[in-house]
Amino acid sequence: MSAKRLLPLIICAALFLQGCGAAQTSESPNLYVPEETGDAGANYRTLVLEPEDIYKDSTLSLSPVYDVTMEIAADEPLILAEYLVGRNDRVTAGEPLVRLTRDVSQADVLQAELALQRAEKQQARQMQQLEDALEGTRRRTDLSEAARTAQEALDQLAIEEQQLLDQRESEALTQAIADAEVLMEDVYYYAPFDGIVGSVANFGPGEKINAGTVMMTLNKADSLLLVGNSGTDFFQYGMEVTVEYGGAKSKTSTSGRVVATDRVLSEYLPHSENIYIRLEDSSIPAEKLDRASATVHTLQLKDQMLVPRSAVKAENGAYYVSILEGDTVQKRYILPGVTVGNVGEYRIQVLSGLSFGQQVILD
């Protein structure tokens, strides 16, 4: 083929190839170009993304209970004089709790004293008779010397026997007087240990209390526990917890430790589904712990990415945050996960769309 015929073909081929190249360039996908969404020169408040752990707070409602409680009961029939302590009072070991009396009077003592006086007069008469008999024997002239000596020995033996009987009777009557006087003394029941008064029976002064009747209960001061039914496995034996108590406007926090659960129980506690917590501060009165609660901080996920919820925006069903890359403000779409934190401090877990080290704009 001649050169004159090839030239038009070469020109057409070149034009065709140029057109194909232009079409390929217009149809190729665009690479990511950061979208500027704000004033790059503005003074933004930012947060640098760093790995964080996600914790879960589990809260348990609690009520106070004592693991050592003693009943103070009457061990004989008594009459109440007065209670010396009241409910929730703190007492020390040996402190009197209640004063009582026995059903005796001064007349009982006087009766015992009169019985002793009568007995002593009777003894004196009997002794005088025996001594007179001995003296009469010594004066008898109708008896031989041997017979009189034998009779004197018998009379003397009778006197000694009567003296022994009189002594025993006098001692018994004297003891009866002492017993009557003791019975007239007040009866006290004392605290066996440092404790807090629990319930107090509703008896008034002068009322009779039968033997075995419980007058009050006393809780051991250092045995206060807080009990609650968790229904979860977050509270484990030996775990340290934070306990809050008091009214809504006067919440107070203290620390405690789980001392028994439904899986690991102290031997003095019955098997149950409850969690028992002992406070480090045993001086807190039980009446302040009626509405206590325990919170445990449990690790859920490590090295997670979290951003403040206020930094996350919604757009057509999708979520994005703005980040600062150098002098450029860019919009980055994210895949959100769980929301954690408290009211006013909520943060959102970011599953994809961002990288650690990036600066998220908070404003």
**What oligomeric state do these chains adopt?**
single chain
Structural class: alpha+beta
Overall pLDDT metric = 79
Question: Order of helices and strands, N to C?
Answer: HEEEEEEHHEEEEEEEEEEEEEEE
- What would you report as the Rg, rounded to the nearest angstrom? 50 Å
Given the C-alpha coordinates, what overall shape results?
Answer: rod-shaped
Our estimate of the beta-strand percent is 35-45%
Distance between the termini: 74 Å
Please give the count of helices. 3
Descriptive notes:
By secondary structure, the protein is α+β, with helices and mostly antiparallel strands. It is built from three helices and 21 strands. Strands 1, 16, 17, 18, 19, 20 and 21 form a seven-stranded antiparallel beta sheet that branches. A six-stranded antiparallel beta barrel has the order 2-11-14-13-12-15. Helix 2 (106-139) packs antiparallel against helix 3 (145-183).
Task: List the defining traits of the structure above.
363 residues, alpha+beta, 7-stranded antiparallel beta sheet, 6-stranded antiparallel barrel, 3 helices, 27% helix, disordered N terminus
Short description:
This protein is an alpha+beta fold and 363 residues long. Helices cover 27% and strands 36% of the residues.
Question: Topology, please?
Answer:
Elements: H1 3-27, E1 46-48, E2 52-66, E3 69-73, E4 78-83, E5 90-91, E6 96-101, H2 106-139, H3 145-183, E7 187-190, E8 195-200, E9 208-209, E10 214-220, E11 224-228, E12 240-245, E13 252-260, E14 275-279, E15 292-304, E16 306-308, E17 313-315, E18 318-325, E19 328-340, E20 347-352, E21 359-361
Antiparallel strand pairs: 1-21, 2-11, 2-15, 3-10, 4-6, 4-9, 5-8, 6-7, 8-10, 11-14, 12-13, 12-15, 13-14, 16-20, 17-18, 18-19, 18-21, 19-20
